[in-house]
Amino acid sequence: MQIRFLVNTFELEIWDDEAKCCTFYTVKDEGADLNETDMFFEKYENDVIYKEHIQQLISFVLNAIGDRHGAIDELFNRYENEVAGLPSHGHLHLGELHYHFPNFPLRLYALRITNEIVILFGGGIKDGRTNQESSLHYKWVDACNYAKRIIQSLKDGSIVINKQKRILLSFDGSSDIIL
Predict the structure, then answer these.
(1) Fewer CB atoms inside 10 Å of the end CB: C or N, the chain?
(2) 3-state secondary structure of 146
(3) CA pair distance 104, 34, nearest whole angstrom
(4) E strand or H helix at 41
């Protein structure tokens, strides 16, 4: 039996803030060299089996969400407890654009804060019918645990949303957010 513990302290850091519609954050565990999102992409970007899927997923995140539509409900329709699994599920028609990812083998977990702010976590290969039956089960559990702490911090005012600047701030106005 494998026992995993979520690191007690993590930082919210901007992953990408250059998109037209959305700012993307990620989480980085205390003492880690890489954040969760970069670890996910680096793990699969040079794998011949998943390289094309990683490129599709990056394009979906940065182009569809980041530059075209923002974090709208239609693109965050794969609800998995506290987080959403990306890419979106089903056939989506948004204007002249069509999104469809049948049997997509990867999941990247995300928490939509607003239509303009998203927190990306890690993910993995969806090789089971459900998250509980899949090898990415622990990444999903980690993402849900991060999300619970972030949601609670938003509720108690430890984290505040600056909608005009599309950013998250600490309660004291600092951009350093450590939970």
Answers:
(1) N
(2) helix
(3) 25
(4) helix 36-44
Q: How does pLDDT run across 21-79, given as a tens digit for each residue?
A: 999 999 999 999 999 999 999 999 989 999 999 999 999 999 999 999 999 999 999 99
**DSSP code of 152?**
H
Nearest to 26 by CA among 87, 126, 117, 134: 117
pTM over 0.85, yes/no: yes
CA-CA-CA-CA torsion sign (63, 72, 70, 37): negative
Rounded to the nearest 10°, the torsion over CA 25, 7, 53, 79 is: -70
* H/E run at residue 140: helix 137-156
**Integer Cα distance of 50 and 111 in angstroms:** 23
